[in-house]
Design goal:
Blueprint (H helix, E strand, L loop, with lengths): L1 H33 L16 H13 L2 H5 L6 E6 L3 E5 L15 H10 L13 H4 L4 H12 L12 E2 L1 H8 L27 H15 L33 H10 L14 H4 L4 H12 L10
Antiparallel strand pairs: 1-2, 2-3
Helix pairs in contact: 1-7, 2-6, 4-6, 8-11
């Protein structure tokens, strides 16, 4: 019996050491990937100040999902607080206590939104910059015009803590932490794009959807989220997706959160945000999705 106990203890010690070494490697390697700074140089945007541009910027900030992470008042909110995933809060992006510094300039806004970078070039670990990297100059400028004049909100958020699970998933290539690493930081930006009910404009809008539904829009488990979160739906015209949906069904889903069979869409899908899109924007999204190749669900 004593030999068995001693052998069991030795095995447990070896397992603990191996786990500790594994965690050490995961943290060291992930910190190495998150550490580099990226410097960019591009012409400063001209930020408008008229009421029409600011209202356009508000529409963009809301319908592109910014308030989903930063809260309706943009004072920030807790998103995930669950080890071993970590503690992730959308930061306060107003000028209130716990928010942005007084010297946070228009160029800093643009660097964060389209490049996923802090003013000093540090990569923002959680910012979904790939969703916004293709924003036109005009839309980015309007969004900044709106964000710059937000009322101050006094709300301090806890520091970011990235747990071992997303770090390991990042090393395995399944979680895009620090999306600045995946962006062509020197790609030219389109000056402007007029809203139109076309597949081309729908493709422009759908960049926001790809973060959850995947680059092929066939859905599946969203990388980095806890298992309790529902998989993203297939929104291609496949039988496992929206092949049987009509345009009216699509509008109903986006405006009321109801599927064609009357079932509620999980609130994880931010339809309450997207319902504020204009008819032209929804028409464009519908045209784009209908033009996609049918793909089986789960292929992202």
């Amino acid at each position: 019996m004593r030999r068995f106990i001693r052998a069991t203890v030795r095995v447990l010690i070896v397992l603990v050491v191996l786990i500790a070494l594994g965690l050490g490697f995961v943290y060291w390697r992930s910190n190495t990937l998150l550490a580099p700074h990226i410097q960019i140089s591009e012409s400063a945007l001209m930020i408008p100040s008229d009421a029409e541009a600011i209202e356009r910027g508000r529409h963009l900030a809301v319908t592109r999902g910014c308030s989903e992470c930063h809260a309706a008042d943009f004072g920030g909110k807790m998103i995930v607080d669950m080890l071993p995933v970590g503690r992730i809060a959308g930061p306060n992006v107003t000028r209130g206590r716990g928010g942005l510094p007084a010297d946070f300039a228009a160029a800093d806004w643009e660097r964060a939104i389209r490049h996923g970078l802090a003013p000093d070039g540090r990569m923002l670990a959680i910012m979904p910059a790939r969703d916004f990297a293709t924003l036109t100059d005009a839309d980015t400028a309007d969004m900044i015009a709106y964000l710059q004049q937000l009322p101050p909100v006094d709300r301090e958020q806890p520091p970011l803590v990235i747990g071992p699970i997303p770090r390991l998933q990042m090393l395995l290539g399944s979680v895009p932490l620090a999306e600045a690493r995946a962006i062509d930081q020197h790609a030219a930006h389109v000056p402007a794009m007029a809203p139109a009910a076309t597949p081309e404009y729908g493709a422009y809008l759908a960049h926001t959807c790809s973060g959850c539904h995947g680059e092929h829009f066939s859905g599946g488990r969203v990388p980095g989220l806890p298992p309790s979160f529902p998989p993203a739906a297939n929104i291609t015209p496949d039988q496992s997706g929206i092949a049987t949906w009509s345009k009216v069904d699509f509008y109903t889903a986006m405006r009321t959160g109801k599927r064609p069979n009357g079932a509620n869409i999980d609130p994880f899908m931010p339809w309450a945000t997207f319902k504020l899109m204009s008819d032209t924007e929804l028409d464009a999204l519908w045209a784009f999705l209908q033009a996609q190749p049918p793909r089986p669900a789960g292929g992202r």
